[in-house]
Amino acid sequence: MGTESRPGTGSRWREHYNSRLVQPEDVAAQVRSGNRLYVVTSHESAPLLAALLGRADELTDLEIRSLGGMWTDYGFQNGQWAHMVRANMSFGTPTSRQAIADGVTDFTVVGYGDAFRHIDQKRGGSEPFDFCWFTVTPPNEAGFCCAGAELWDLRTSMKRSKVNVAAVNKHIPNTFGDTWVHVSEIDYFIEDHEPMPQRYLYEPAPEAVEVAKHVSGLVRDGDTLQIGTGSTSGTLAQLGAFDNKHDLGYFSEMSVAGLMELVKKGVITSKYATVRPNKFVTTGLTGGADEYEYVNNNPFFEFYGYDYMLNPAVICQNENMVSINNGMSVDLRGQINLISMGPKIWSGSGGQLAYHTGAYLSKTGRAITVLPSTAAKGTISRIVPQFPAGQMVTIPWDLADTVVTEFGVAELLGKTMRQRAEALINISHPDHRPELRKSLKKAG
Predict the structure, then answer these.
(1) Confidence tier at 6 by pLDDT (50, 70, 90)
(2) Among 22, 53, 151, 280, which residue's beta carbon has the most beta carbons within 10 A?
(3) What distances in angstroms separate CA 111 from CA 147, 187, 313, 342, 401, one per listed residue?
(4) What is residue 387's three-state secondary structure?
(5) Residues that are catalytic
């Protein structure tokens, strides 16, 4: 069947769009008790969510699922609306960490960007979502809307939802990649032209300055980088870790502060990238309005979905792939934790396991984990003899590669257990080395 014969396509797309342009309350009125709503990461529409909360006395047993967690606290994650809705996240944020610990918000583990395998395989209790809410640009002359610079799981969640609702926002940039959605794929539209907020940027810690120097020595000209967000990895570009490099590539789950400047200076060219050469490839930006303006109609930047960008089989096709991600703690065996403090969820594995694995499998690739040597004003060592009971492990010891603190670099690949432990102790804080060595002797 050609596109002209499908409702809302071809020359008739305007008719479809205008007939489905409604108020937020009209969409909220269609929600029923027991429905499951998918809110696309970084695409929260305040008018839609406010209209939903307007029905708090009528609705019960709703689920709001969001991959990355909502950064704005609408009350779903603090128990305020527990009688009506339960949130379900896959990444802890400042607004959800305590709610997850208290059992107010559910946490669903997602691996390698494959968030919907259970739905596709029709596993027990896995049904498509009733609604998917997201944000796009107004349609162009051909009837296509753009998801802008925050694609994430938009395309994949749309395909697994019964009703797709788009908030139309003129501040979303037009971008390249797999970011365009035809109006015929959308059931309802509302207008929400709230300007895009400026995102939170991490303030570099003093330890990160030294970490950046060590990382700079590990990165080679022509490498393709992935950099994770966080207080250490997310500040490396700001701190000049890559300023003296040439023709770096970028293929990553997200961007971090300072990368746009490296593009403007010609440091990031992706000239030698194997997958999507000569392109800056990511799923989403992190900087907000300023970055949106820079990538608007800029063909150097391409955005692809979460399921593609977090697939190790794709990532490892980049030769000289280098992943650089935060760690919260590392034990002397080389196990790496990003997710929790003991059993308490702090964040989520996000793209770290996918990119660490992809870099590990890449020809001449390297998987780097960065972290300060201590926490709590130096009183707690982040390099530990062993993890406490209930501790999550993000990277298993099988994939341990390179660990960096402000005190140096520990190369773990190919090392014996004793050599690994010695290398990690050597980059721990000097105040904690005696106790770590004592624990090593106890372990035999």
Answers:
(1) very low
(2) 151
(3) 24, 30, 13, 20, 20
(4) coil
(5) 253
